[in-house]
RNA sequence: GCCCCCGUAGCUCAGCUGGAUAGAGCAACUGACUUCUAAUCAGUAGGUCGCAGGUUCGAAUCCUGCCGGGGGUGCCA
């Protein structure tokens, strides 16, 4: 039990005497914002004063008198309008530190209400090269799964691969028409990737060409509207004038957007038209979009040729993706891709129909929902199913086979509307006992503030990204440590480079977009993986230099001594590890854990500066400090491992 | 048109369920290596938390309106 929950349990009974439901008041007990206010503070007296019509300071005094905190706190003070400031006693700290140091789990107890989770993350489209966008889902999902497990929950990780979608139709079409067979023989996946991009380009060319006149007409209309609005006489009415101005601004920005769209379209067209060979192919394959869809449809219908190609391609693609996962050290319990659910989709629609949830509209079978203008389409006019259908089948399958308490979908925030609808339909369908959560995350941007792309406009491949991270880390490691051995350098490059990459993703609030920046990511300072890893390595250095017998110390720790304030601060922080984990899991936010680890490492760096272990003034103080060091290192190592990041003994 | 997200220091970002003087890191400037790892630490400077109202003991946080940016929006995933 951590300090926070222990304090809360002490307050609980006293608060229950004042209000029917103390939950809200208990929520107002939290770590102190400033060390001068002690370690924890209870802020509930002010609102309770209002509610009960008594002065808040009186309420605070009553609470303090009623709650027995002697076993926990050395000091309890009422401050300001009625803040209750709590300072943990050294005896309490000592007990818990000693327990933590003896414990493999560092005193973090497993939850007493374990749940069964499916964490659905990564989910790349196979055969399409993975790019930087996939790494966020992969890294965040993996961290959440690991933390849930550490907290005592049962977790099934599932990589819901896109292995049955239209991209296969495109690749099959490409294979049939544009295959470079020698390239396919030597590097099959690379060739498939090329075919995908090639078909995509021709498809984009035709759809853009078809769309362009419409867009141009829209632009003309938009420009006319701008002129019209500009020409409108000024009205005397303030409100009307304001409305006019707003309409004008809207029209101007609409026209601007259309102009941008047209420029993009023209660039797309030019890319194909300037190459005579490409232009020729484009002309020969005017119906490519439709044809690719037909290849997909044929695959789904069990066409022998296409199915054989799919069966040939899929293992190769999966192996290729697996290379990335191996490098990132990510393992899934299940990899039930879209194709796995293929034969269950018709039944999903049938069942929804039977229950009367569906309605036909324009030939498609739809589920209409309150709060949404557009329905969720579960079967297309041409009879094909959609990802919505697959997602519903997946929910059903997981409930029936895993009996989950919760499913987390670690997916891009752009799909939030899809998930809103999906969860609403699932709820109607009867899956309303299970938690369904879209753990959304923002877009990875380039330094220009636009989605991260290469200079040529392609998305950035993941493999090159990992290489770059390692190379840069190696350079930095070499700079700091010119005599480093090759083995150690390679190891450091991997652990620091990939750790930095993961940490950059995890330490940003997942809901916000973030700017991808190698320099910052591998920064040797600041809130970075390197800083935390360095803290760990420094502890190992101390242990080496002092030749301490850590195993013996762990077995029978001595009393902790807090000679300097920083030692106590660090100790309190170390005991808050489990609070950080609890807090992270409230909204599945890895950055909470990152922050905690960063703060811990910061306190350690100060401790390192101020408190010599080797030259401590007494044996007992030296051992006390060694214990703090050991606990710090283990907290950092464990915390980082929950984030999928490793540490080094020497840096 | 409708829906969602965002706007905090020059830059990149934190800020939990409303709490005490809004925080980090980078960049800038000043210091600290005969010392357990300087991949570090100490310090200075930098703010109208987009704007305006409201709710209240208290608002970056909640509500309304406005301004600015992004995303999504019936048969792609």
Verbal overview:
This protein is α/β, with parallel strands linked by helices. Among the domains are: 86 residues, Gyrase A, domain 2; 166 residues, 3-Layer(aba) Sandwich (Rossmann fold); 141 residues. Helix content is 60%, strand content 9%. The protein is built from 25 helices and 13 strands. The protein has a four-stranded antiparallel β-sheet with strand order 1-2-4-3. The protein has a four-stranded parallel β-sheet with strand order 6-5-10-11, sandwiched between helices. The two termini are 35 Å apart. The model has no long low-confidence stretch (mean pLDDT 90). The structure holds one RNA strand of 77 nucleotides.
Main features:
single chain; 651 residues; alpha/beta; Gyrase A, domain 2; Rossmann fold; four-stranded parallel beta sheet; 25 helices; globular; RNA-binding
Outline:
Helix content is 60%, strand content 9%. It has 25 helices and 13 strands. Strand 7 and strand 8 form a beta hairpin.
Instruction: Please give the largest β-sheet.
Output: 4 strands, antiparallel
Which architecture of one domain does the CATH hierarchy give at level 2?
A: 3-Layer(aba) Sandwich
Total strands: the figure is 13
pLDDT < 50 runs, ≥5 residues: none
Q: What general form does the structure show?
A: globular
Q: Which fold name corresponds to the CATH topology of one domain?
A: Rossmann fold
Output mean pLDDT.
90
> What percentage of amino acids are in beta strands?
5-15%
Q: Which structural class best describes the helix and strand composition?
A: alpha/beta
Our measurement of the CA-to-CA distance between the termini, rounded to an integer number of angstroms, reads: 35 Å
Whole-number radius of gyration? 30 Å
């Amino acid at each position: 039990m951590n300090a926070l929950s222990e304090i809360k349990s002490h307050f609980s009974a006293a608060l229950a005497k004042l209000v029917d439901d103390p939950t809200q008041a208990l929520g107002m007990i939290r770590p102190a914002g400033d060390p001068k206010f002690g370690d924890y503070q209870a802020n509930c007296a002010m609102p309770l004063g209002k509610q009960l019509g008594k002065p808040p300071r009186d309420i605070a005094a009553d609470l303090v008198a009623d709650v027995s905190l002697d076993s926990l706190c050395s000091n309890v003070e009422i401050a300001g309008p009625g803040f209750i400031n709590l300072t943990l006693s050294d005896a309490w700290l000592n007990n818990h530190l000693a327990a933590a140091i003896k414990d493999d789990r560092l005193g973090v107890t497993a939850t007493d209400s374990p749940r069964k989770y499916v964490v659905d993350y990564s989910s790349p489209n196979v055969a399409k090269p993975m790019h930087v966008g996939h790494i966020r889902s992969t890294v965040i999902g993996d961290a959440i799964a690991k933390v849930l497990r550490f907290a005592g929950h049962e977790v099934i990780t599932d990589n819901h691969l896109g292995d049955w979608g239209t991209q296969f139709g495109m690749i099959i079409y490409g294979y049939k028409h544009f295959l470079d067979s020698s390239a396919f023989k030597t590097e099959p996946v690379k060739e498939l990737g090329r075919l995908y991009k090639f078909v995509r380009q021709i498809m984009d060319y035709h759809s853009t060409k078809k769309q362009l006149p419409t867009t141009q007409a829209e632009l003309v209309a938009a420009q006319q509207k701008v002129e019209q609005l500009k020409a409108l006489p000024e009205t005397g009415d303030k409100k009307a004038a304001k409305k006019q101005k707003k309409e004008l601004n809207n029209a101007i920005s609409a026209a601007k957007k259309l102009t941008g769209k047209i420029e993009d379209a023209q660039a797309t067209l030019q890319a194909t038209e300037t190459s005579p060979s490409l232009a020729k192919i484009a002309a020969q394959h005017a119906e490519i979009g439709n044809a690719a869809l037909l290849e997909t449809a044929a695959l789904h219908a069990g066409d022998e040729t296409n199915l054989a190609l799919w069966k040939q391609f899929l293992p190769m693609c999966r192996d290729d993706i697996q290379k990335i996962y191996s490098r990132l050290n990510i393992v899934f319990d299940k990899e039930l891709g879209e194709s796995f659910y293929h034969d269950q989709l018709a039944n999903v629609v049938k069942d929804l129909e039977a229950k009367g949830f569906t309605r036909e509209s324009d030939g498609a079978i739809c589920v209409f929902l309150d709060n949404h203008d557009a329905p969720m389409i579960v079967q297309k006019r041409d009879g094909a199913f959609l990802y919505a259908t697959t997602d519903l089948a997946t929910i059903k399958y997981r409930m029936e086979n895993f009996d989950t308490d919760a499913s987390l979908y670690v997916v891009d925030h752009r799909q939030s509307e899809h998930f809103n609808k999906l969860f609403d339909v699932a709820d109607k369908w009867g899956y309303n006992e299970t938690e369904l959560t879209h753990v959304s995350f923002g877009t990875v941007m380039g330094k220009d503030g636009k989605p991260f792309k290469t200079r040529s406009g392609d998305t950035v491949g993941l493999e090159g990204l990992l290489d770059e991270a390692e190379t840069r880390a190696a350079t930095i490691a070499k700079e700091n440590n010119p005599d480093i051995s090759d083995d150690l350098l390679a190891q450091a490059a991997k652990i620091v480079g990939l750790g930095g990459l993961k940490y950059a993703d995890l330490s940003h609030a997942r809901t916000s977009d973030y700017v991808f920046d190698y320099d910052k990511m591998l920064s040797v300072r600041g809130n970075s993986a390197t800083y935390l890893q360095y803290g760990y390595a420094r502890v190992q250095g101390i242990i080496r230099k002092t030749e301490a017998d850590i195993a013996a110390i762990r077995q029978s720790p001595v009393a902790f001594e807090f000679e300097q304030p920083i030692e106590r601060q660090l100790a309190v922080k170390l005991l808050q590890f489990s609070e950080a984990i609890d807090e992270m899991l409230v909204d599945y936010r890895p950055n909470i854990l990152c922050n905690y680890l960063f703060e811990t490492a910061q306190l350690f760096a100060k401790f390192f500066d101020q408190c010599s272990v080797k030259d401590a003034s007494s044996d007992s103080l030296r051992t006390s400090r060694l214990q703090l060091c050991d606990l710090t290192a283990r907290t950092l190592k464990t915390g980082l491992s929950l984030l999928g990041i490793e540490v080094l003994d020497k840096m």
